[in-house]
């Protein structure tokens, strides 16, 4: 029996319960992990992000299957599913806060950290992570005892701030969800942006963001697209990218836009083009502020409001929640042409690696849609 993290928000936990608590779902990009690792009889430990509470335990009763019938949202992004049997299901105010001393000190992810220390929540930002067996059995015991005791854990000021950040705003084009930033959002783990340079015999290091740019260039080349890399990064990307794909790299953009628009476009980390048309644009955000990449995307759409292209913020998994928080800020959600999130989605480093490993010769660029994630913007 293996334990896995099953991540919920207060909205998806409520939807899961309203639909009978019989099916748990994950995003399409997690299908390989779900199929290869998770087995009948394993257990999902349910963690509610935001309020940071352990809210349930589910026994897996089926192999994974794909189904887009709306459960958690409509349309529903959680299409990789398992049938489950509830072991423990707790209401929000009876869920166990991770900050309880006996919980915090028992988990390997937190026991050596001070509460609210920078980066403490990184380990609890992605579903289907295998959990430590000893601490998982302890958590399961605590959840089962709480199911009997039904002890109240009233919402703290922090809990209320987390739950209140997401608000619905009425606009002429309909209801839009925005996220109001809080002080908690400003404290973010600094990420190391270097890794061994395999092509140089591990004698040097290459920035991970450069490697991701190179992988995106490779993907574009394999789909017979031309690729733009900013001049400031082009030499370093070329050093990492196989010479087989160098012919896809453009020295100049074949676009007929005004100078302001071209200056903005030229700074975007990776652009795929077919002929004289932009297909997709990617901003790779590793150590830089997520806000800066989104601002460049918003600038582009403001300069060319009729431009119909797909935009992507590419970042490590541990920055995923930060991407969505920033993307749903009012400044990006209340644009004149509509929310930025209708044109811009999140793509993880791992997803880029997986796509780069596919047989792409006869694929179209919309394969990216299966691996990217969109922010929730509906009311």
What does this protein structure show overall?
With 379 residues, the chain is of the alpha+beta class. The chain folds into 2 domains: 3-162, ph1033 like fold (Roll), CATH 3.10.590.10; 167-370, no CATH class. The protein has helices at residues 10-18, 31-37, 101-104, 133-149, 157-164, 183-186, 208-222, 231-240, 259-265, 290-303, 320-327, 330-333, 349-356; strands at 3-8, 23-26, 43-48, 53-60, 65-66, 80-89, 96-97, 166-171, 174-179, 194-196, 205-207, 226-228, 270-274, 277-284, 310-315, 344-348. The strands form 4 sheets. Strands 1, 2, 3, 4, 5, 6 and 7 form a 7-stranded mixed beta sheet that branches. The chain has a 5-stranded mixed beta sheet with strand order 12-13-14-15-16, sandwiched between helices. The chain has a two-stranded antiparallel ribbon with strand order 8-9. Helix 9 (259-265) runs antiparallel to helix 10 (290-303). The radius of gyration is 22 Å and the shape is elongated. The two termini are 39 Å apart. 34% of the residues are buried. Mean pLDDT is 85; it is low at 183-193 and 196-205.
């Amino acid at each position: 029996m293996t334990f896995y993290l099953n991540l919920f928000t207060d909205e998806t936990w409520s939807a899961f319960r309203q639909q009978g608590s019989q099916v748990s779902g994950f995003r399409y990009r997690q299908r390989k992990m779900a199929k290869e690792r998770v087995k009948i009889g394993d257990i999902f430990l349910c963690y509610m992000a935001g309020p940071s509470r352990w809210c349930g335990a589910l026994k897996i009763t089926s192999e994974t299957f794909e189904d887009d019938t709306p459960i958690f949202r409509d349309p529903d992004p959680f299409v990789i599913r398992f049938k489950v049997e509830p072991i423990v299901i707790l209401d929000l105010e009876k869920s166990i806060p991770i900050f309880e001393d006996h919980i915090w000190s028992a988990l390997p992810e937190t026991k050596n950290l001070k509460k609210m220390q920078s980066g403490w929540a990184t380990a609890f930002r992605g579903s289907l992570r295998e959990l430590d067996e000893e601490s998982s059995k302890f958590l399961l015991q605590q959840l089962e005892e709480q199911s009997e005791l039904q002890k109240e854990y009233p919402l703290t000021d922090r809990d209320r701030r987390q739950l209140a950040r997401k608000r619905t705003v009425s606009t002429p084009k309909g209801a839009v969800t925005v996220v109001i930033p809080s002080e908690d959002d400003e404290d973010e783990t600094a990420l190391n942006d270097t890794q061994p340079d395999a092509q140089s015999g591990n004698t040097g290091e290459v920035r991970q963001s450069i490697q991701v740019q190179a992988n995106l260039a490779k993907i574009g080349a394999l789909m017979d697209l031309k690729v733009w890399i900013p001049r400031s990064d082009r030499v370093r990307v070329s050093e990492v990218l196989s010479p087989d794909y160098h012919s896809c790299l453009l020295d100049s953009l074949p676009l007929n836009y005004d100078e302001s628009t071209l200056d903005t476009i030229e700074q975007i980390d990776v652009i795929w083009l077919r002929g004289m048309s932009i297909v997709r644009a990617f901003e790779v955000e590793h150590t830089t502020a997520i806000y800066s990449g989104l601002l460049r995307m918003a600038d582009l759409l403001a300069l060319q409001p009729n431009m119909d292209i797909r935009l992507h913020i590419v970042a490590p998994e541990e920055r995923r929640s930060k991407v969505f928080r920033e993307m749903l800020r009012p400044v990006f959600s209340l644009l004149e042409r509509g929310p930025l999130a209708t044109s811009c989605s999140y793509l993880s480093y791992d997803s880029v690696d997986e796509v780069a490993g596919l047989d792409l010769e006869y694929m179209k660029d919309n394969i990216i849609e299966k691996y990217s994630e969109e922010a929730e913007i509906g009311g």
